[in-house]
Amino acid sequence: MNCPKDWPELVVRVQSLSETGNTMIPDRYIKPPPERPCFTGDTTFNLNIPVIDLSALMTGDPTLVNATMDEISDACREWGFFQVVNHGIRDEVVDGVREIWRSFFHLPMEMKQEYANSPTTYEGYGSRLGFQKGAILDWSDYFFLHYLPSNLKDHNKWPSQPPFLREAVEEYSKEIVKLGNVLLKVFSINLGLEEDYLQKAFGGDNDNIGTCLRVNFYPKCPQPDLTLGLSSHSDPGGMTFLLPDEHVSGLQVRKDGEWITVKPAPHAIIVNIGDQIQVLTNAIYKSVEHRVIVNSDKERVSLAYFLNPKSDVLIAPASKLVTPKTPALYQSMTFNEYRLFMRTKGPQGKSQVESLKSPK
Ligand code: OGA
Ligand code: NI
Fold first, then answer.
1. Which CATH number does the domain 14-355 belong to among 3.40.50.150, 2.60.120.330, 1.20.120.1730, 3.30.930.10?
2. Average pLDDT over residues 46-67
3. Ligand 1 close to Cβ of residue 216 (< 6 A)
């Protein structure tokens, strides 16, 4: 199956809808009642995803490294989601890249339209995931670009404005790849695998793994109780590094059936497990459903950096994690094949990874 060259219907920029000042959102964005966010009271009792200080890993203090590795292990097993602080990426780099993207979304529409994307690769300026005609859409626009492998990186597909956007993305990307390499190693050791197991399973050195960035722009929404900025989904790739908008919350994570609103720590980066790591670890680590809610008085910008296996390597449960008591739960598949589910149907909770379950 291949993705078509064009979207099935006229693309409407959510930002343009927001800027009309209408007090009602079009029907296309109204979610069925069970999917709508719940704004009544704080049902989550102020729960938050774990915050983990990575300074020990970065400085290598041996007495603290083990404690940090254990915290990461617990967070991976219990949450599939955590935020890291003192992650080694300078505050100016993190804040700078987020704000430069905010400026991009405030450029005149004609300038953004030059980068309008198509469902074939999704690269560029987009407003929907999935190409099913008549689908209920999410209240967001985005920009999607590739960084690794380097043969997929094409600066001409990255915005040329605002000035220094490309430089800022380059610098941030390098740092994210470094952090990704560290965490792949930590996860491998924590799972009792060779320390380079996951890196190798992802394709080997850095020019073989895949990394891509989706910058999400959630415009103000006059009826935030009827829609979502991003519908419930688990991330299809390996792991995700999400740089949230520090001043506007919106990300919700599903924990024991409840939606928990993430409260980002200053300069934190949120890490979450994707479906490929769920498969590789035979579900010892699980990708977790998450979604984004919007609000009526503040726009929100977030940068989701996806670290993925090379597109054509087969991803299957690690043989060391498959035992008579814990048989392989998943059939193997390449990430390229897997990604088509999301690209075709759009966000669908966890139904994609569930569909890989081996027949009993
Ligand atoms: C994503 C995502 C969350 C957010 O892009 O996959 O889950 O807070 N984003 O924007
Ligand atoms: Ni996501």
1. 2.60.120.330
2. 90
3. yes
